[in-house]
Design a protein that fits this description.
alpha/beta
């Protein structure tokens, strides 16, 4: 019960890493406000567990995110943990990248993360306590052909995490990031078997990571086991070869 009675918001909780993180937080005793953009995607899980409260909104919509945070504040009078997991990945080679593509990916991956970070921090400041966890990616550190825009958004998340950690430390708020490597999710499998095999060949452990392995890292950073950890980027990547 590492997260007993902690009030948490997890974005992109409908599937993949977000879903695994929601399940891990519930096992550890948290109250989870679970966000997804797909209406109804969390209902079945919420019906089976009273500690899961579905919240359907688009993280790139500042009005919807503000309404969601205000709802949590009214109902719980606090927010202990924010997991900024929602994100999109669309690939394009240099020369084929369009302005609309850049704006779409940045609006979700970066602007959405920044908006929620600011809104959550305001609530956390009241209790001088909180943990914000931003999901970045190993490609935000290493880069990857065909992912100039996606890797740029993930690099931005690393930078904003480090700056926010310095600014919010005196307020009792920790801000960290997790950089997953190649994880067995729908997003990763969408690249096709040929490209997937090439990626796996660069993983010394010889396999994709599991969503639950990222969720465990989120539990650590959300819990009191990491009270002296802030501004850190935790690579969960099985030492991917670069």
């Amino acid at each position: 019960m590492l997260l007993k009675d902690k009030v948490c918001l997890i974005t992109g909780a409908g599937k993949g890493i977000g879903r695994a993180t929601m399940e891990a937080f519930i096992r550890e005793g948290a109250i989870v406000y679970a966000n997804d953009i797909v209406e109804g995607s969390i209902d079945e899980y919420a019906e089976a567990n009273a500690k899961v409260i579905p919240m359907y909104f688009d993280v790139s919509n500042e009005y919807e995110t503000k309404a969601a945070i205000l709802k949590i504040s009214r109902e719980q009078q606090k927010l202990d943990v924010l997991v900024n997991n929602a994100g999109i990945m669309k690939d394009a080679l240099i020369g084929a990248i369009t302005k609309p593509l850049i704006e779409e990916i940045f609006s979700v991956n970066v602007y959405g993360t920044m908006d929620l970070l600011q809104l959550a921090a305001k609530i956390m400041m009241r209790n001088k306590s909180g943990s914000i966890i931003n999901l970045t990616s190993i490609v935000g550190i290493t880069g990857n052909p065909g992912q100039l825009v996606y890797s740029a958004t993930k690099g931005a998340i690393i930078s904003l995490t480090k700056t926010a950690a310095k600014e919010l430390a005196s307020k009792g708020i920790r801000v960290n990031a997790i950089a997953p490597g190649m994880i067995d999710t729908d997003m990763m499998n969408s690249i096709g078997e040929k490209h997937l095999a090439l990626h796996i060949a660069n993983i010394p452990m010889g396999r994709l990571g599991k969503s639950g392995e990222i969720a465990d890292a989120c539990v650590y950073l959300a819990s009191d086991m990491s009270t002296y950890v802030t501004g850190h980027v935790l690579n969960v990547d099985a030492s991917v070869l670069v």
